[in-house]
Amino acid sequence: MDHHLEGDSDDVIPSSLSPIHRLPTELLIELCTYCSANDAIAPLTLASVCRLFREVILSSPRVWQLISLDGQRPTVSTSNAQADLWIARSDPLPFDVELNLQCSDALLSLLSPLLPFIDRWRYCWISGAIEERLNLFSLIQPGLVPTLHYLNIDIQSLEDSADASYHPSTFYSCGVYSQIPQHISMNLSFATLPSAKSVNSMQFTTLNITERSLEVHLQPAEILDFLTMCPLLEEFYYSGVLHDEVSTELPNVAHLPHLRILLLRNTCFQRTILSGLDAPALGELHLQNLNLEFELQRHSAAEEGDSDEEDPDYSRSPWSDHHTGISTGQTVYWTIQLTFFFWSGMGLRKLITRSNPPLEVLDMDLSDMRTKDFTWCFDRLSTLRRFRITGSDMSDRVINLFKPVFLPPDDGASLRRVINIRMPRLSALKLYNCQQLSGKAVVDAIGSRVNYTDEMTPDSTFENFTIVDCVDFLPEHIVKLSKDLGRRFRIA
Hints:
alpha/beta
C-alpha cells in the first residue's frame, strides 16, 4: 500500500481521472470505430471532445474506414477535401464508400478523389439518383489488386436516363474489353461532362464517350477539357451527333502522351478535337461518318492551309448533288463539301504538326479531305503501314500520290534521278466505294509503286491491296494489276 501511495509505479491510474480516461486505449478505439460506422462525420466530432480523444482519433486508421459523401454539400471542393482527409487518415487500411446523390451528374466529381485508391475499396453504397450496392472484391479474382481501365460515358438528358429500362452497373469487371482480370471499368450517364475543375486526375486507360440524345450534346471544348483529367489514356473513342459548334473559341490543348488509338465518329468537331490534341504516341486514327449534308460555321483562326483554292475538288461527290442551289446562274453546292473537307484536313494537319505521331493506321470511313490535305499528310506519314478509305470523293490526283516521285538530282551535272516514295512503309491499302477514281489511274499508281518497291525495298512493299465497289475499275484493270500483285491483290 505504501508503495502505491509513493507513486513509484507507472501502472497507477490516478483516482482524479474521469471514468472515460481510465479506459484502455484499445477499448476507446473500439468505441470510436463503432460510432464512426454509424455516423461518418463522427471522427471530427469525437476529435473535438478533448485532447485524449483527439490523439486517439488521429492515430487510429480504423476510425476513418467509412467515407461518406453527400451531393448536397455546399461545393464539390468541400466533398473532395473530406475525401482526401479520410483517405489519408485511414491509410493503409481498406475503406468503404457511401454516396448520397441528388443528381447522377455529380457521381464522377464525388468519386474522382477516391478512384486512385480503388485498390483499398471494400464496399460501395450509392443511394438517391442511383441505387447500387457493390462488393469490390466480387469483381476480381482473390489475391489480385484492382486497377482502373475502361470508362464508358453516355451523354443523354436526365429524363432519358431516368426513363431507361436498363441501368448498367456503375462498376464492373471488364472482361469484354481486357484480358487482364484485375481491370475495373465504369459506366456513367451524364447530361454534360463534369468540368476539369470539379474532377481530380483519373487513371483510366480507355475512354468511350457516346452521345445518345438530340436534346443534349457536347461542345469540343468540354471534351478536350475532360481529356486533360485523363493523362494516362491509351485509347479514346468519341461518337457524337451531327450538329454545329456553338463557340468558335479555340480550347486548351489536351496533352495525352500515352494515347495510341483515337476514333472520332458522327461529329462536326473533328477539326477542333484533332487540333486540340497533343498525342505524340498516336499509332491509329479512325475517322468515321464525318461527311456532312449541311454547311458549317467557319473556323475562327486562320492557319496555313486554310485557303479555299481548288474549288472544283469539292463538287465531285455524287451524294451532295441534291444540295445544288442556283444563284445568278452559278452552282453553290460545293460550299457544303468544301466546309467539311476544310474541317477534317486542317485538323489532321494540326495534329501532325504538333505531335508528329508515329501513325501506323489511318482509317477514313465516309470521311474525306481536300486533295491539298491528302498531299500534305501523305508527305509526312512516313510510318504509316495501313490506309483504308471508304466512300471517298478522292480524285485521280490523290491516287497518283502513291506513285514513285522522281526528284531532280542534287548535283546539277548528274543526269540520274532520285526516287522518293510517299508513305514508304505502307503495306496495306484498301479502297472501298471510291467512285471518282479511274481504273487506269489506279493501275498506273499502284503498279508503278509495287514494281519499284518489290525490287528496291522488298521489306517495305505492299502485302495487300484491296479495291471494292469502285465502278470504273474494270476487268481489264483487274488483269493488269494482278500481274504486278498476284495473290496480294483482292477485289470484290
